[in-house]
Amino acid sequence: MTHIVVEACVKCKYTDCVEVCPVDCFHEDEEMLVIDPDECIDCAACVSECPVEAIYAEEDCPDGQEKWIQINADKAPDLPVITEKKEPLADS
Questions:
Q1: 3-state DSSP assignment of residue 14
Q2: What is the dihedral of CA 79, 80, 84, 89, to 10 degrees?
Q3: Domain that holds residue 59
Q4: 31 near 13, Cβ under 8 Å?
Q5: pTM here?
């Protein structure tokens, strides 16, 4: 299993989570972060770091957020890896 980023991260993009990730599995686009399921080692270090509770174990995905499992898998390979904390989006 892997962890995923869900809708709560959209237009928010806090990056506290990327600093604790031991395998650099986070990727970013203009609006949010996603997790590469092929890189995630399911350590859960990132979960408690997210101030908006946008990271879940795939098997604990909240009802109605299941589409984000595939979104993370599809987007991650084409986006740059993020490993250092940045300022969140101004609208967050």
A1: coil
A2: -50
A3: 3-78
A4: yes
A5: 0.94
